[in-house]
Amino acid sequence: MKRPWTLPLVPLYATGSAMRSAALRLGLEQIQRLAGPVISVGSLSAGGAGKTPFVIALARLLKAENIPVDVLSRGYGRAESGPAFVKADGDAAVYGDEPLLIAREAGVPVYVGARRYEAGLLAEKSGSGTAVHLLDDGFQHRQLARNADIVLVSTNDLQDRLLPAGNRREPLSALKRADVLAVPSEDDAAVERLRAMGLKQPVWRFRREMDVPKIDDPTAAFCGIARPEQFFTGLERAGVILAARHAFADHHRFDRSDTAMLMRLARHSGARGFVTTAKDHVRLGSLADELATPLNVAGLRTIFEDEASVSGWLRKTISVVRDEN
């Protein structure tokens, strides 16, 4: 989302970003290293890139290859900042919605901490010393050394502005740090632009598929994600009749006033049920029981166009790191 009124602030943000990059490059800011290989998954944008389902897909792929893997995440919105192991049956307020969703859907150990290094140390002390660490949303978290950076990028990112006028956290030149560029299957324009910029890294093409349950009755859709219109449009493309829709702020923490409002929304719109995202369902927790009409959950999956190539790259990268150590 572009915010033209904040354009005068962009040079200040850009200067701050450049100064931090220089501090890291010159060794003025400490970079810490874990014993196990670290593969970061990140993006240029501040949200809505699809990093969570991408991390889940990578974790599942490594697990299928019998490669021990865990995930390190910040745990945005959690009450505490210290490192913790994510219990899959836990509460989003304790761990954050994304780590909890990853733990449930990927079936691998997940550790959270404002300092991902501390989360990684906890992982390695907990018996995961030989595991590959997937660093969730780690492209800008450069205080932790990584062996590879996978960066999700789309035409929207390439056309966007820097924060605070846009949604991009770094200038396009930051893509030079990437080891792999992951681009949506339908976004050929992004690949052409990346190559025109002189970027020669491998490009992984992937598609995102919504798992939409069969819903016959008019439904009220709600979500608290970075790009809610993508969710609503995906539901309509799947044939869901939306009697009403409501977008909360990204990572919105639900309370009883929200469920009461949603019940009023359903009554006034004639909706006979609700549908929301997997992330929002995680954040709802026990409050989901207060929605007196059916609540459907639409998940989001990442599918690699060339899974064999992705798997081969992962095995080779991990092997090289372990040989060097």
SSE topology:
Elements: H1 10-25, E1 38-43, H2 51-64, E2 69-73, E3 84-85, H3 92-95, H4 97-106, E4 110-112, H5 116-125, E5 132-136, E6 148-152, H6 155-159, E7 180-184, H7 188-196, E8 203-211, E9 219-223, H8 228-237, E10 242-247, H9 256-269, E11 274-277, H10 278-284, E12 295-304, H11 307-324
Parallel strand pairs: 1-5, 1-6, 2-4, 2-5, 6-7, 7-8, 9-10, 9-11, 11-12
Antiparallel strand pairs: 3-4, 8-12
Q: In words, what does this structure look like?
A:
The protein has 325 residues and is an alpha/beta fold. It has 2 domains: 32-208 and 303-324, 3-Layer(aba) Sandwich (Rossmann fold); 210-301, Response regulator (Rossmann fold, 3-Layer(aba) Sandwich), CATH 3.40.50.2300. Helix content is 36%, strand content 20%. The chain has helices at residues 10-25, 51-64, 92-95, 97-106, 116-125, 155-159, 188-196, 228-237, 256-269, 278-284, 307-324, and strands at residues 38-43, 69-73, 84-85, 110-112, 132-136, 148-152, 180-184, 203-211, 219-223, 242-247, 274-277, 295-304. It has a 12-stranded mixed beta sheet with strand order 3-4-2-5-1-6-7-8-12-11-9-10, with helices on both faces.
